[in-house]
Amino acid sequence: MSGTQERSTTDATGLTRTRVVLVDDETLVRVGLRLILGADPGIEIVGEASDGLEALDVVRATSPDVVLMDIRMPRLDGLAATERLLAEQPDARVVILTTFDTDEMVLGALRLGAAGFLLKDTPPALIVRHVQDAGAGRTTLSPSVTDRLIASVTRQPKDERREIARQRLDGLTERERDVARAIGRGLSNTEIASELFITVATVKTHISRILEKMPADNRTHIAICVHEAGDV
């Protein structure tokens, strides 16, 4: 699967659409999501699946920008499907959309490389925005999930967390800190490159070095560190 901009489609009016696959074992949920997302002119639903195994086949056939993935499904659950999907197609953007938000599920999904974690009670307009953000390369989390993630990643008191985060940022070069701050603001690689007047390839190099130096598992953890340091 290639980069987001290459996968997105452009219609006759020149509008770029985010191509989405819906994965949920409940038909009514998929119908509701199709109605919500399909009503937005910037989103195109290109496939649906009712379990993780079917999702892998649909994603291989359609190469979507974003996969909205439920967790608890028959045959192959959403976390296992996400792991397999990202092993095959590392650039895929998987957003977990579920009613379950235990610490283990949130952390498990993000460690596997999911681009976001949303709850099914998220207002429809916000689901649309989160899908668009994911398609643009941004990590997207429900506010309640962000709070729980921060609490789960580290249990230290707030002052201790701030000091640890600042020490991690102090180990970066100034340019790496600029990139980390941009990630903390939710910018995609393309937006970071434009803002800092560097290439996307250079942005990716900086991110790799940041992940190694902090150390961090993914850009979500970079964003958390920046916020805890108060360095946004």
Automatic annotation (TrEMBL):
Location of 4-aspartylphosphate modifications: 70
Domain of life: Bacteria
CDD domains (UniProt xref): LuxR_C_like (cd06170), REC_NarL-like (cd17535)
Keyword Nucleus tagged: no
Gene3D superfamilies xref list: 3.40.50.2300
Disulfide bond found in the keyword field: no
Gene Ontology MF term list: DNA binding
HTH luxR-type domain mapped to chain residues: 165-230
Domain Response regulatory: 19-135
Name by which UniProt lists this protein: DNA-binding response regulator
Native source organism of the sequence: Cellulomonas phragmiteti
